[in-house]
Design goal:
Length: 133
Amino acid sequence: MAAAPVHVRHDDIFVGFKPIDDLHKEFQAILDALNDPREGDYGEDLLALHEHLLRHCGLEEQWMLQENYEHYARHKRAHERLLESISDIRRRFDGGDVDAVRRYCADLMNWFAIHAQEEDAPLAEWLKGTPPR
């Protein structure tokens, strides 16, 4: 899950396809709450993030299957690793490791920006009927 630290702008996660971009906006709002030191409840926000990612990945996978997306297996594996990582970080939180949660949340936007450009952008082009670049 760890990606090389880079400066990520929030708009790096958008791919120009409204259904995916709407999911990414939801993700961004939840992650921003987790990264805000004034925010209240890590447990509640982590649960919201996990539930969002389950729905988010499920919708993208549904679209890929419906449209016979050629890179479905690779994209699904990336989702599986992401979902494993959020499950793991919730277990660590339940065990009292709040520092691990902070590190995970601080790094997640970097990973997500890379995923958005390498996996979601080509999917968006496919769903829009535009040939891949």
